[in-house]
Amino acid sequence: MRLRRLSILFVLVLGLSGLAAPSLAGPPGKWTVVSGGGLTNIVEPGLYRTADGTLHVAMHRNASDFTAEYIDVAHITESGKLTGRTDATGAWQGVTVDPELVGSPDGGMRLVFGGVRSGDPNDPYRAGYLWQSSSPADGLSWLLSPTPSVAANTGYASSGSGATTLPDGTLVAAYPAGSTIYYQVGAGAPLSFDVADCCAYDVTLVEDGGVVYAAWYANGDGAPNMGQFVRTIYPTLGPIIQVPGSVSTFSGSPGTIANSQHAAMATRNGGGVYIAFCKGYPTCDNVVLWKYGTTKLLKVPGSQGASHVAISPAPSGRLWIAFEDEDDNLHAVRTNTTAKKIGAVRTIKRTKSAGPVYKVAIEGTRARADLLFNDGEKIWHQQLFAGLTLKALPDNWNGNQSEKVKFEVTDAGDAIKGATVKAKFNGNKLTCSTEANGKCSITFPKMGKTKVKVTAKKSGYAPDETKLNVK
Which listed residue, of 2, 244, 264, 392, carries a Cα 20 to 30 Å from 51's Cα? Predict the structure, then answer.
């Protein structure tokens, strides 16, 4: 098979033919497709948001006749509109299905992927390295670099590549192949280390205070060689640390749950490295959040049976965590500003037009979070807000007497000022607005036996509701 050669500067903005039209919106409450054709269920999108608020989504694509492979980059505005997709690579003989996007010192982006462009012995991109391509912030033109991101010739067979940047913009990339993890810092020589027992998968890299951390999943024999792992790889190579709680015992034998996508590791704005994962075996007891250097696990409520866990930094030191459940619905939750408390877990039902969930991704660095999933044929996208939590005290009383009910509205335990609390009963409505402590009260008249529906709303949040039982 002879493949079309890729010019060093490749620019192609994909149009409408057979693909998603531009200017499609994916605001809160609406799923839209951001991918073109040629998708498979092992494709994991890479996400990066540029300074203008645009979210760029890198996705592997097969040619319609499966004679070539590509990487497209979709562009989604901060308000959730798909403005188009760009072919960032042109045709390759084979490229990895989990492309990574990171920033560059000039405010643009770099695309990191493994692959072999052709079988031509004169093609410099046939070595099978982890490659890099750069683009301005708009993502509309991509320049393939002659310098690989990891100059180790098994990058084309990566089992889950990771990439990040140092504070000065230097690229750091890594990938696992069998029991070896290869990595490279900038234009330096490729380095590597081995895990204790084969094999390592789904490497994620993050940078915190000039230190680069690598996380991965391993399925070796015996409890010490399985589960989630993390180690520092720059500026020095630190010890390999098994994430507490990532191995469980079932019927007397150790076991662990593979995330089946990149390790859910993120750096919190304000400091700290965090990993979210499913605890338990053979099914997920619950999703937990672990801070590097500690032993405490923060449980995510309502996450029993979860899979495909993803994480993202959020404004003011918060973190977003997303996952799917056993019914293939999506869930997302945001922590408080210290990442020590979990907010309201949002349930976002999968659109009826979509198939089952194979990969989940989230990017939450703006007021709205962008949630994506792969259903085996398409990448779906929707934006969402963090959820409010409404509590009432008392929540039941004798309807033959009036009652003053105190309401509290919070976001991951933090008081919310200016939320509107509205109570509906017997055709009547009563409201109050929360003060700085997140509290307000409503005095209900005598109303006999009935149910009272109460909702709490505030712009920029998903509402919450509760019911009061009047006997």
Answer: 264
